[in-house]
Amino acid sequence: MEIEYRNPAEIEKRSFAIITEELGNRTFPEEIALVVKRVIHTTADFDYADNLVFSNDAVSRAMNAIRNGAHIVTDTNMAKAGINKKTLAKFGGEVHCFIAEPDVAAEAKQRNVTRSIVSMERAAKLDVPVIFAIGNAPTALIQLEKLIREDGLKPELVIGVPVGFVNVVESKELIIRSGVPHIVARGRKGGSNVAAAIVNALLYQLVHREGF
Amino acid sequence: MEIEYRNPAEIEKRSFAIITEELGNRTFPEEIALVVKRVIHTTADFDYADNLVFSNDAVSRAMNAIRNGAHIVTDTNMAKAGINKKTLAKFGGEVHCFIAEPDVAAEAKQRNVTRSIVSMERAAKLDVPVIFAIGNAPTALIQLEKLIREDGLKPELVIGVPVGFVNVVESKELIIRSGVPHIVARGRKGGSNVAAAIVNALLYQLVHREGF
Q1: DSSP one-letter code for B125
Q2: How far is it, in rounded angstroms, from Cα B87 to Cα B108?
Q3: Which DSSP state fits A79?
Q4: Sheet containing A157-160: which strands, arranged edge to edge?
Q5: Are A50 and A32 spatial neighbours (Cβ–Cβ below 8 Å)?
Q6: Is B1 in contact with A163 (CB distance < 8 Å)?
Q7: pLDDT digits (tens, 9 = 90+) for B65-102
Q8: How far apart are CA B36 and CA B157, in angstroms?
Q9: pLDDT by residue (tens digit) across B114-148?
Q10: Mean pLDDT rounded to a whole number for chain B
Q11: Which bin fits A157, alpha (ψ -120 to 50), beta or left (φ > 0)?
């Protein structure tokens, strides 16, 4: 077959042009548009034009946090793998994921809770500003909301995009109602790829803005 | 919020029951059903009930290959992160991803091709039976088809589920027409998460069948 576009930057540019064209009359504030379009780019699923919910100034606040060195916590190693860690490191940030640590599994088993719950408790002890990017586990999101409400945890942003059929829809509504800065994919859809895409959208806007 | 289901195995069982219920009259041969349902479980997107295409005996052939120690090659580290490597190792398999290796980047730059193309050429030199799981790069799929057609590469299975708007649809049709054993998500949709989910569906069916 004839490959029309070979250069990765050119492929991405053409992809975003197609997405913009197919969104038609749907317009968004610029900062939000870049997140929505990157998620559609990652999933080829235009449902995200409707289901992504942003708290006030979520994008600009998160970009400021990253510029000031905020770290990212993910609920899966897959989301961690998808985040552009080199770009994040330029601002001083790192990505943490505690889910596969042996002592997290041991503690979860002993307490009969999910590893995601224990992971979030570990993350809450990090002594740096944190953006949480949750693409898989609704129990992670539910635990986060509890840590915010009961223990005064103050995340810079919660990206709440777990996917699935059990506890998922409700866990996202909890975050939306919590008052914490958030970007949430309402409904069942989401995923580790979506969580990583949202973090990368923030990173790339910041790089663009800062002229890196 | 009240968490109705806490146990991960119970959550998965309930999720699959909901998916089966919502598929309604749509039925599939059992081996195929388990792949389709796991992809829907991973994406919450029922479009996959329509767009997944299987060559004859693709699932049982791939399961045999894994039981005989086949390795998996992915196009992204994200897909690699999502595959259950512990379970694969029980059968002697490993997951390879060449995309982030420094000499792959150097060669791609020098030849002015994508890193995915160089990665596939590296993978073609592996001296073991291989299942390719491509969730991101259409150029990887296009290069694979060329290696099959021109160089006699004989993959045990090609999982062709790149996502996106440029070269993607066409690259998948190439694989479907190639005669190679395949599982392909026709159209624009797919992703690293989908590629990993299909590999895991094969692994879990095999574990179930072998009584591990």
Answers
A1: T
A2: 33
A3: H
A4: A52-54, A182-185, A157-160, A130-134, A71-74, A95-96
A5: no
A6: no
A7: 999 999 999 999 999 999 999 999 999 999 999 999 99
A8: 16
A9: 899 999 999 999 999 999 999 999 999 999 999 99
A10: 95
A11: beta
pLDDT in tens, A87-97: 999 999 999 99
Query: Span B181-207, mean pLDDT?
Result: 97
Is 80 exceeded by the pLDDT of residue B43? yes
The token duo for B124 is 């073609």
* Amino acid A2: pLDDT: 58
Q: Quote the crossing angle between the two packed helices A30-43 and A8-23, to the nearest 10°.
A: 110
Please return the burial class of A28, using the count of CB atoms within 10 Å of its CB with bins 0-12, 13-18 and 19+. Answer: middle
Structure tokens at A106: 């041991």
Beta strands in B30-123 (DSSP E): 52-54, 71-74, 95-96
Single out the residue of A69, A65, A137, A155 nearest to residue A98, CA to CA.
A137
Would you say residue A163 has pLDDT above 70? yes
| Residue among A1, A114, A191 minimizing CB distance to B142 | A1
User: Which single residue is written with the structure tokens 């730059």?
Assistant: B109
Can you tell me the ipTM of this complex? 0.93
To test the contact with chain A by mutation, choose from B75, B78, B146 the residue with the greatest count of A C-beta atoms within 10 A, namely: B78
Identify the contact set of chain A against chain B, taking CB-CB distances under 8 A. Answer: 1, 3-6, 8, 11, 14-15, 18-19, 41-45, 76-78, 80-82, 112-114, 139, 142, 163-168, 170-171, 174, 187-193, 196
Spatial contact of A139 and A114, defined as CB atoms under 8 Å apart: yes
Kindly state the tokens that stand for A77.
Answer: 């190693």
Which tokens is A204 given?
């790339």
User: Of B194, B195, B180, B184, whose CA–CA distance to B51 is shortest?
Assistant: B184
Beta strand pairing call for A157-160 and A182-185: parallel
- Tokens 């540019």: give the residue: A13
Dist CA A119 CA A72 (whole Å):
13
Please judge whether B191 and A190 are an interchain contact, meaning their C-beta atoms are less than 8 angstroms apart: no
